[in-house]
């Protein structure tokens, strides 16, 4: 649906439940209920996980500074981004980056394509949100 597309297109936006619901043309409660029903988690929790997935790709595939990555996924400070990344992924961003760039690092197999905090089935139903 529209709300999911907005989050995916603009992870750096300072989204709130209110701003997302307005742009999607839904009430806050309808947006929340639809996210929980179709995605399995509230919209702001999904946004955090999406941001960390985007950040993990940037950490793995670029040499961008942590502050640049933080800004590109919606964090005003590197410290806030690092706290959120550690909370979601279990490692500091720099440590995660070093582990992902090591040949034969644990987590570098096909399952790492899902990104941090993603279960095997998580992405499969996200397109049904309306």
Descriptive overview:
By secondary structure, this protein is mainly α. It has a single domain, classed as Homeodomain-like (Arc Repressor Mutant, subunit A, Orthogonal Bundle), CATH 1.10.10.60. Helix content is 57%, strand content 0%. It is built from seven helices and no strands. Helix 1 crosses helix 2 (17-24) and helix 5 (66-72) crosses helix 6. The longest helix has 19 residues, at 43-61.
Brief description of this entry?
With 130 residues, the protein is mainly α. Helices cover 57% and strands 0% of the residues. It has one domain (2-115): Arc Repressor Mutant, subunit A (Orthogonal Bundle), CATH 1.10.10.
The end-to-end distance, rounded to whole angstroms, is 4 Å
**H-E order:** HHHHHHH
Quickly give the CATH architecture: Orthogonal Bundle
Mean pLDDT: 84
Task: Sum up the structure in keywords.
130 residues, mainly alpha, 57% helix
Secondary structure blueprint with pairings:
Blueprint lengths: L1 H8 L7 H8 L3 H11 L4 H19 L4 H7 L5 H12 L3 H9 L29
